[in-house]
Design goal:
four-stranded antiparallel beta sheet; five-stranded parallel beta sheet; alpha/beta; single chain; 8 helices; globular
Length: 233
């Protein structure tokens, strides 16, 4: 049974969403501010966190930053309708997804399940039966799917589940273009809709992480209006 941490200062959301998730078989921990959630996480990390952005004591951005120093667990942001800047910033900081308020609880459940399935596949080795689990080397890039490890020029790079899958999809066929729709299929289940901006934000975050170990990293090329391509160095 996966443990989901739900962090939001709206008690109505805490109550209704926790009831829905518990009915779906999840164990749910609720917190109404970022600080109390972080204090609990230092004692025991959940399997996934669903975070509001604007909260008292410690907001969702600060909480995410601290979470990413300790774990790669999936994180979903709950954002207000007009918080486009916060959505993009959250993804760049390492969130795996976001859901806009007001939201369908069924949609939230599906996104949670999709991220947990990907995480479980990496941890348990269920993906070992596929071609995609082999260690992949493309020039300076080395990816080990079973260990969820990535290195560039011998230096380790820490990626979220979504970032890892997008990089793997691009690097599997250097020189070939992947459209945003194709990358959406890689990162999300068919029943989960995301727009182009979500994929773009993940790619920007991915580039930033790669450039943290190599300022000249340029292997991921943007083809405007088409998609992205990995160019082997």
């Amino acid at each position: 049974m996966a443990r989901i941490a739900l962090v939001d200062d709206d008690r109505n959301i805490l109550t209704s969403v926790s009831m829905t998730l518990e009915a779906e078989g999840f164990e749910v921990e609720t917190y109404n501010d970022g600080q109390s959630a972080y204090d609990a996480f230092t004692r025991r990390m959940p399997d996934m966190a669903v975070l509001d952005i604007k909260m008292p004591r410690m907001d969702g951005m600060d909480l995410l930053q601290r979470i990413r120093q300790k774990t790669k667990m999936p994180v979903i942001f709950l954002t207000s309708k007009d918080d486009e800047i916060d959505e993009v910033l959250g993804l760049r900081m390492g969130a795996d997804d976001y859901v806009k308020k007001p939201f369908s609880q069924r949609l939230l459940v599906e996104r949670i399940r999709a991220l947990l399935r990907r995480q479980d596949a990496i941890v348990t080795g269920e993906v070992a039966v596929t071609e995609e689990t082999k260690i992949m080397e493309r020039g300076h890039l080395r990816m080990d799917p079973l260990r969820h490890s990535v290195s560039w020029k011998g230096l380790d790079v820490s990626l979220t589940v979504t970032e890892f899958m997008l990089l793997q999809a691009l690097a599997q066929r250097p020189g070939f273009v992947k459209s945003r729709d194709q990358l959406m299929d890689v990162a999300y289940d068919d029943q989960v809709y995301v727009d182009d901006r979500t994929i773009d934000s993940h790619i920007k975050r991915l580039r930033k992480k790669m450039r943290s170990v190599d300022d000249e990293f340029s292997a991921i090329e943007t083809l405007y209006g088409i998609g992205y391509r990995y160019n082997e160095a």
